[in-house]
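CORE FACILITY INTAKE
Project code: CF-77B
Contact: R.S. (postdoc)
Sample description: multi-component assembly, two entities in total
Requested service: structural model of the whole complex
Turnaround: standard
Below are the sequence entries exactly as provided by the requester. Do not edit them.
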Amino acid sequence: MKTLLVSLLLAVAMTLSAQDRSVSGGERSVLSVRASQYPRISADHRASFKVKAPHAKSVQIDLGKKYDMVRDENGEWTCTTEPLGPGFHYYFLVIDGVPVADPASESFYGCSMMTSGIEIPYPEGDTRFSLADVPHGEIRMKRYFSKTANAWRRMFVYTPPCYEKSSVSYPVLYLQHGGGEDERGWSQQGLTDIILDNLIARGEAVPMIIVMLDGNTKDFNSELFNACIPFVEKTYRVKAGKDSRALAGLSMGGIQTLNACITHPECFSYIGVFSSGWWVQSRHGMPAHETEKYYEKLKAHKDEFNKGFKQFWFSMGGKEDIAYQNCQAMLKRFDEIGIRYTYFETPGGHTWPVWRESLYRFAPLLFK
Amino acid sequence: MKTLLVSLLLAVAMTLSAQDRSVSGGERSVLSVRASQYPRISADHRASFKVKAPHAKSVQIDLGKKYDMVRDENGEWTCTTEPLGPGFHYYFLVIDGVPVADPASESFYGCSMMTSGIEIPYPEGDTRFSLADVPHGEIRMKRYFSKTANAWRRMFVYTPPCYEKSSVSYPVLYLQHGGGEDERGWSQQGLTDIILDNLIARGEAVPMIIVMLDGNTKDFNSELFNACIPFVEKTYRVKAGKDSRALAGLSMGGIQTLNACITHPECFSYIGVFSSGWWVQSRHGMPAHETEKYYEKLKAHKDEFNKGFKQFWFSMGGKEDIAYQNCQAMLKRFDEIGIRYTYFETPGGHTWPVWRESLYRFAPLLFK
């Protein structure tokens, strides 16, 4: 076992030591691991990467666009990207064709595996997503047994700064991640706690609890209504009742949100759907005609829905968002039926910067 | 940005799809990511790994011992290890000489980077480290501003199952990770919450709070005494005072524990040192002669130390533990001085299975 540790430390040294010798300009990414000086981010938001791989034939960085890395005489590979947009971006290091997480950076569960993330600074003065000197809440990991899944599962729960010392009850936002992610997504990639701490400190959002579930389940409605909501309302000081519950989700979580709120409109007064919309064509095990029953229900109970949802709020990452067409087609049907909603668009595509922005804009609308 | 998602999903498909076609025997590791059928663990606790890397020249699994993977005609590489000991083990996938995290598995911050972990089942009937149908506490992520570090830092805080609904105060164990790890180590690799939930449910440990700090700091004493303890005692319902405080740590955290408890014996009644001991020879910026002042203090105040520490508890992962010699040399000095302590040894080396076992045995001794 001595061999193990020595071998592991040598491996790390081999991988990361390169960074100590020749560091290019810019600042270390806030997501670089402690021992690494890379990735680095320049003043104009280009990211530079470095890895020591003397025996590799080809090394790339995949940020959606692939960047070929260039080898120097020491077997160190580097590349610098074009300027990147602010916020969090997934990326892969691709070694001889195999996409893996970059050992120089923190990893995140996204794209159905542990992948790397890079954080590009927001413009100066935009402190909405920055850790600030304000009272801070907590992110709590809580295990619960789901009879629906017949398994122990985890939820992550944001409690606002005032929760620990108070004895009052709070409203709850249930907030769902996207496909290939899990219950960690909103707190780790999404910075839920920082966003809410800032909004609450500015008086822009009321203190609330945010419950982030694992949406990887065959029957989300059953998990939500039979397992999670009863557990949350039994475990935490939460206000029960429709007007104290909100449900939102991004991408896959947006579809789960739509399905849940239309089948159980009595449960939530506030609905948020980020970068999502029912599939126009059958896909992902959900036939397009399945959604027709939802449109029928919306049509038959139009007034109740319009009255019952205090917010029916949609956001989209611009035309470049892969969910754009589905969302537009759905909202067109809502228009035809006469369902009221709010629509917000911001450039950025199907990415976490858009979803952080969505939460920042959605949370202040809740429980007022 | 559409390209990004498609590219990422393709990358994952390429890496993980292999697993769907030909799955060997055994069970999926509990730490495999959802989309992957590997790593797999056989009934006799051999681990099998698989990765698709058609363009790589050499692929290995590094578990301390390196295993060469063998390529098939589809470019899929596999290997099977010797039987592994129960519990958590770090490992790397080595692609053409570059050690990275295995995309088929969960990642953990250890060895100063995000590396992979595999969990080998404990013997049947040994449920000490298993998620059980008992009341569960929480692991909370809490941010605090450290004037010592002049930076925002994180701590992870275990609160026992009864904490949320009660209004009483609890004693606190401060519990430190090892070198190359951080504040996540004890909850993620160490399963702190599962260990304590089980002990509390069996009536073997009293309900307590466990605070897991980031020990990567130049002045641990200042961080602990000036920043963390005051923050914890202000923020949570904790009992203050020596008899309600314990301090323990593994490896590097064990040295931090020793230094802190000998410079501030008035602060803690319970001390745990896992797989550690002062360096016999100067190393890691700490000259060996530095420890002489601690021995002098122990000698000068022997009776106060013997009376003041209700537990002065040492554990070691057998002779194969890299800290074995340092620990033995230190305890020999303690014997010469007449300092009383308890020593526990279990095979396993300098590894998490030993540290989980250490916590399981140490926690029941506290606050009684």
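Facility notes:
- The radius of gyration of chain A is 22 Å.
- The CA atoms of residues 223 and 229 of chain A lie 9 Å apart.
Invoice: internal transfer
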